[in-house]
Amino acid sequence: MTPSQANLMDSLPKVRGRLRENVRLDKVTWFQVGGPADVVFKPEDEEDLASFLREADPDLPIVTLGVGSNLLVRDGGVRGVVIRLGRHFAKMSVEGDKLIVGAGALDGNAARFAADAGLEGAEFLSGIPGSIGGALRMNAGAYGADMSEVLVSAVAYDRQGNRHELSKDDMGFSYRHSDIPNDWIFTQATLQLSVGDTTEILGRMADISRNREESQPIRSRTGGSTFANPPGKKAWELIDSVGGRGLTIGEAMVSDKHCNFLINKGAATAADLEAIGEEVRRRVFESHDTLLRWEIVRLGDPASPKKGNTP
User: Would the pLDDT of 67 be above 70?
Assistant: First the structure.
């Protein structure tokens, strides 16, 4: 622990949850790359989270990390505090034809919970490798549906610890985007579903699973869909057209199975993965006058330059 980290720990509010310093993040991201977080905070419950946000230094950098599926943590790590929502924030329940689900719940688990309760409309979530909080943040979607179609309301806390109950209209949803400030933390969502037959619902989820297995490199160290589709175009087709499929930089590779996915072949750095993504963007822009927008969140600092002899 560096002196700066020690000073940070001493300055943080008292909590009922867990505070840990110098936490490796490569172990919790799907790419399995990236440097450590100065501090990781797992709040005990919503009040613990709200109290921390109210009492923390307003200038303290705070970010929230879900299951690390659509995330690239840079090699220098993340300064300040990374908040991870634990078991309390993954609870689920059903009220009539509505699913109430914590932001920490896995998308796939939410889809299965709804199916077991005989509710349809959440099947698309089984094809999204992330958590409900991330799905709210980016209006996640797959297989012809997205969060904007099922969301009734969401709960979020702002940087000052104030609780907000948000309607679907408040979210400002658009394609793979919401207008909610980046420093707000989602804790819960209510989804409007429909009564259906559990066997049929599970069958549709099985179809989604087979489709993903056949078309995406889900067994690899990947981060999911890398770029959002530009209006009227498909990112993978643009990448394929400029020779992106199979492209490598170091141990980073554009998947030859689905070229809107980046892969860590084993020893890639975050810098390798970001560089290959930027190379793809450059080629697409030069050939098609289209600038691909990163769908993967890039977080943290680049690695410090290595010390050595200089001329």
Answer: yes
Examine the residue annotation and report whether 123 is marked as an active-site residue of this protein. no
How confident is the model over 11-56, as pLDDT tens digits?
A: 999 999 999 999 999 999 999 999 999 999 999 999 999 999 999 9
- In CATH, the architecture of 12-87 is 2-Layer Sandwich (3.30)
Q: Could you confirm whether domain 220-299 is CATH 3.40.50.300?
A: no
- CATH top-level class of 88-199: alpha beta
Is residue 194 within 8 Å of residue 119, measured between CB atoms? yes
Q: Domain residues of the chain, as ranges? A: 12-87, 88-199, 220-299
- State the catalytic residue, choosing from 69, 126, 131, 225: 225
How high is the pLDDT of residue 224?
87
Contact 35, 77 (CB under 8 A): yes
Q: Active site includes 225? A: yes
Q: What pLDDT is stored for residue 7 in this prediction?
A: 86
The structure tokens listed for 185 are: 């933390």
Q: Which is the catalytic residue, given 24, 176, 245, 293?
A: 176
Amino acid identity at 30: W
Per-residue pLDDT for 4 more than 60?
no
